[in-house]
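Q: My labmate handed me this sequence with no annotations at all. I'd like to see what the chain might look like in three dimensions before we decide whether it's worth expressing. Could you predict it?
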Amino acid sequence: MSMSLKKDKIFYWANSELKNDGEGILANNFLFLLKNNFKNSSLISINKIKLKNKQSIFAKYILPFYGVILLWGHYLKNEKISYINYLPAWNFLLIFLLPPRTIIGPVTGSINRKNWNFFTTVSSYIGIKFLLIKYKKIIFSHDFFKSFVPRNKVKNCFFNFLLFNFKKKINNKKKKYDFIFYVRKHNNKGNQFFIDLIKTLSEKNYKICVIGQKLNIKKNVTYKGIVTRKKSLRLIAVSKYSLGSFENLFSFFVLDCLSNNLKIFFNKNFKIDKKLIKTNLLIPIDFYNLNKSLKSINNSIKNKNINTLKFKKLNFSSFFSQ
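A: Here is what I predict for the chain of 322 residues:
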């Protein structure tokens, strides 16, 4: 009589597992990696709270601590546990309170915020110090904090998890829009620059698609509202150009644009790691100078060079090895 092997259990907390939300996409990618490396384990979510607004203050800044409390309960029962998100580097108190042996998901955060820049930088530095003390290995969603990590610890850090399973697509779709923008209600998104740029481009008769927040601009602008990632990809495929966010070099929206061969104008404060990505699709502009940015955009549009994109494939499986 054959007996089925009993699977181990990994109890995990994730604030968001949405497929059209940056944190949710990161979570799903990490869970995929977790399943592949713990094939004899079943993953059990301990987040039973259903919220309509995953971006609320309660969801992002209070609920994660409830998740930590629940994880402690499973830890004290000697069960395997994982904390997936939200896990910004600046939240050093959350990092400090996580139980020992917690499998942590991708560390996020920004060091280029429009407001509270000094506070978030110092808090992120403290948070990363706690991470390095508590955990042998750390996965970061990007590489903003690489300079915060001592050289002897860098080998145990895995950067740019945003690029997990990143692929270049063949995009021969007929273009419907000149520009596609993702606009969010967020103090760190440099939204006023977005609004001014969209208004100016619309007046120059460029056809513009906006997903996310609706603006008070009607001429040559089509609003799609909040859409699924699948629909976002369809809209990106029929667009020519896009814009990155103020506080981030790579977001999933930008990566989706990049994979579909769009030219993307990004905040010049960020530097591209050419060992990671070599491309002429990423064009730096000055988010503090609209006229200067418009000149850069116009010059890029006039440039008819063949688009190129080469990138390094990253392997994160060794994150789970001893």
